[in-house]
Amino acid sequence: APKDEDVVRAPRPEYIPNKIDDLNYVRVFDTTLRDGEQSPGATLTSKEKLDIARNLAKLGVDIIEAGFPIASPDDLEAVRNIAKNVGNEVYPDGYVPVICGLSRANKKDIDAAWEGVRHAKRPRIHTFIATSKIHMESKLRKTPDEVVQIAVDGVTYARSLGCEDVEFSPEDAGRSDPEFLYRILAAVVEAGATTLNIPDTVGICLPEEFGALIAGIKANVPGQYIISTHCQNDLGLSTANSLAGVANGARQVECTINGIGERAGNASLEEVAMSIWMRGQEKIFGARTGINPVYIYPCSKMVREYSGMAVQPHKAIVGANAFAHESGIHQDGMLKNKLTYEIIAPETIGYFRGEGDVGVVMGKHSGRHALKSKLKQLGFPLEGDELNEMFDRFKLVAEQKTGGVGDDEIIALVTSGAGQG
Ligand code: KIV
């Protein structure tokens, strides 16, 4: 990654909890350390959480959800540590990230969340209660009226502690009655909520539905607040749904690095941020974020290593194959012009290939042109019959291999065949 002082970012609007003085700016709220850590099998130590939080701040994340303080003394300590440190550090563009802690809508949880985040320059409490019929009836065993009262009491209590930045989430909003959502959201805004986060908790919405939900909230809930998306990936639609939310007025997106999270995970920060970076101007009302893409790969690598959650090779943006090319036709295109098969230069996201390396992976689908180029790079500039003969022998080896043919094997092949033909 580059040195901090070399990093130039677009100016970020001043942080005001319930409004953004730039209609196009979308806040990025990272929940790798809270929802991401809820991935089965992913556990992070307090020191690892602090390292990740620092990297998220460098990446340009606006709000870091550092944990769920009531969950355990360790969680509280990790949140407090991040609030005291990262929450008071000034990052290259002069920005101090907001540090957020999650709580259910009850005093004990809210006290723990406040105890964790209050040391930060910009503390936020995020409180939630479920609003879908199935959750209210089967899980909470509460009536809708009771749920509204609990939500209002929770937000009022959080504000009474001196916290000026309070986010409210109606859990399972994706399956909640929109009219009930408007009612509870209007009530919590009245009580002092500054961000309304809309979770598709079970990842069931289609992009059109989620977009319409956000548009409906914007049109029907009075007051000054920021709308946020929180999309789970059960149907593989979390990125598409987050973008549909932005297109319909959401100005905060909640995501995690590598998309880690409960079950099939959360919207992945790198996918959402790079989609806005690539297509924001033309497609989604000129949206932009404060993310500096060059830190994406280092963050992804750190989260992968610390959490032990592997990244699938074909994962968009950060997978091992995201910038690799095996078929002959693609390799030929890449060797002539990288834009033929890459929409993002890997350096943009902080993934640096070697000089002259265009991500060509030598395997059974590789063509003559790619082999010629690889041989030249390895110091064997073969032409004509020599190249043809080497290509035939290479194909025989490549057809037997599943993981591609490495440079050492190609060198062995060319030197063992020297003088043949
Ligand atoms: O998925 C969800 O509903 C949540 C909320 C607490 C925001 O994680």
Automatic annotation (TrEMBL):
<dbReference type="GO" id="GO:0009098">
    <property type="term" value="P:L-leucine biosynthetic process"/>
</dbReference>
<keyword id="KW-0808">Transferase</keyword>
<keyword id="KW-0100">Branched-chain amino acid biosynthesis</keyword>
<keyword id="KW-0028">Amino-acid biosynthesis</keyword>
<dbReference type="GO" id="GO:0010177">
    <property type="term" value="F:methylthioalkylmalate synthase activity"/>
</dbReference>
<protein>
    <recommendedName>
        <fullName>2-isopropylmalate synthase</fullName>
        <ecNumber>2.3.3.13</ecNumber>
    </recommendedName>
</protein>
<comment type="pathway">
    <text>Amino-acid biosynthesis; L-leucine biosynthesis; L-leucine from 3-methyl-2-oxobutanoate: step 1/4.</text>
</comment>
<comment type="similarity">
    <text>Belongs to the alpha-IPM synthase/homocitrate synthase family. LeuA type 1 subfamily.</text>
</comment>
<keyword id="KW-0479">Metal-binding</keyword>
<dbReference type="GO" id="GO:0046872">
    <property type="term" value="F:metal ion binding"/>
</dbReference>
<keyword id="KW-0432">Leucine biosynthesis</keyword>
<feature type="domain" description="Pyruvate carboxyltransferase">
    <location>
        <begin position="26"/>
        <end position="297"/>
    </location>
</feature>
<dbReference type="GO" id="GO:0003852">
    <property type="term" value="F:2-isopropylmalate synthase activity"/>
</dbReference>
